[in-house]
Amino acid sequence: MKDRLRERAKAHRAVLARDIPDFSVRIARFAAELAPAPGSVIAGYHPLQDEADPLALMKALAAMGCRLALPVIRFGSQLDFAEWRFGAPTRLNRYGIAEPEHPRVRLEPSLILVPLLAFDSAGHRLGYGGGYYDRTLEHSEAIAAGIAYAGQEVEKLPRESHDRALDLVVTENGVRKFG
Fold first, then answer.
1. Is residue 75 over pLDDT 70?
2. Residues facing residue 42 across a β-bridge
3. Facing residues of 144 across strands?
4. What is the pLDDT of residue 88?
5. In sequence order, what are the beta bridge partners of 41?
6. Are strands 168-171 and 143-147 parallel, antiparallel or unpaired?
7. Mind spelling out the 3-state secondary structure of 143-159?
8. I need a surface site. Which of 18, 62, 67, 166 has the fewest CB within 10 A?
9. What is the DSSP letter of 166?
10. Is the dihedral of CA 150, 154, 156, 161 positive or negative?
C-alpha cells in the first residue's frame, strides 16, 4: 500500500516542482519564523531530483548565525549530521545523496529539515521507505521540520508504530505547526 502511495506522491511532487520553480527562494523568507538562536545547528539536505529544495532557507538560517549540517549515513541504521558550510564541497554517498566532503565534525541539530513525499494534517509524513529519518528522529530531541510543496498534503497517511510525526512543515505558503 505504501509503495503505491510513494509512486503516486513522487509523480505528483514532480508536477509541483515544475509548477513552482522558485520554491527554494519562497521558503527562505520564513527563516525567522523557525526562531533559531544564533549558533543553533540546523540539519538540512541537498535536494535530489524534484525534492522540495531547502538550500535558500539554509543559506538564510546561516546568515542568521546558525551552523549547518548535512546527513551522513553511517553503517548503523540512523543518520549522523556533519558540519557543512554553505557552498563547501560535498561528495555523493552510495545512495547518491550529498554529504560533506570531509565529515569530521559530528553535530547534534536542534532543527532537522526533512525531505518527504507527502504529509497529512496531523504532521505524519510519507518518506522513501528506508526509515533513516524515522529512526533518527526517534532518538533525537530536535524539531522535525518537513520541507514540502503545499500541494503534497494529503488527507490522511497510513501510520506504523515506528513513524514519527513532524513538528512542523515549511511550504511555499508558510510555516505550519502540528500538535
1. no
2. 68, 111
3. 112
4. 92
5. 67
6. parallel
7. EEEEECCHHHECCCCCC
8. 18
9. -
10. negative
Owner of C-alpha cell 521507505: 129
At the second CATH level, the architecture of 2-177 is 3-Layer(aba) Sandwich (3.40)
pLDDT at 76: 65
Q: How far apart are CA 155 and CA 84, in angstroms?
A: 36
With contact defined as beta carbons under 8 Å apart, do 167 and 141 qualify?
no
Q: Is 124 helix (H, G, I), strand (E, B) or coil?
A: coil
Q: Read off the amino acid at residue 7.
A: E
Question: What are the residues whose beta carbons fall under 8 Å from the beta carbon of 113, sequence distance 6 or more?
Answer: 42, 43, 44, 45, 54, 57, 58, 145, 147, 170
Residues pairing with 67 in the sheet? 41
3-state SS, 44-112, equals CCCCCCCCCCCHHHHHHHHHCCCEEEEEEECCCCCEEEEECCCCCCEEECCCCCEEECCCCCECCCCEE
Dihedrals φ, ψ of 125, to 5°?
A: -120, 150
C-alpha cell at 8: 503516486
Which residues, listed in sequence order, are joined to residue 72 by a DSSP beta bridge? 80
Q: Whose CA is closest to 61, among 147, 121, 137?
A: 147
